[in-house]
Amino acid sequence: MAAGKKKRRRLSSRQRPASPPSNSIYELDDDATVAPTALAASKLAKLQRRVEALESESRKRRQLEMALYSALGTYLLLKLASWLVASGANR
To answer: Where is the Mff-like domain (predicted)?
Structure first.
C-alpha cells in the first residue's frame, strides 16, 4: 500500500507546473523578462563549455598529428638513406 502512495506522489509531482502561477500582470512581465534571460545565459554557458572542449580536442589532435607526421617523415628518410647506401654498395 505504501508503494501505491509513492507512485501517486511521483505522478502528481510530474503533473505540477514548473512554477506557480503569478497573481499580477507585473509579475508575469518580470518572469517573462527574467526567464528568457536566464535561459539564454544558461545556453550560452553550455555553448561556451562545448566550444572550449572542442578547442581542447582540436589542440590535442594537432599535437598527435605533428608527432605522428614527424615519426613517419623520420622513418621514410631513414628508409631512403638505407636504400641509397644499399644501392651504392652494389655498384
So the answer is: 16-84
Output the tens digit of pLDDT for each of the chain's 91 residues. 555 555 555 555 555 555 555 555 555 555 566 788 899 999 999 999 999 999 999 999 999 999 999 999 999 999 999 999 988 877 6
Whether pTM exceeds 0.70: no
DSSP code string of 18-86:
SSPPPSSHHHHHHHHHHHHHHHHHHHHHHHHHHHHHHHHHHHHHHHHHHHHHHHHHHHHHHHHHHHHHH
Cell digits of residue 75: 622513418
Q: What DSSP character marks residue 20?
A: P
C-alpha angle with apex 62: 59 to 68, nearest 5 degrees?
A: 145
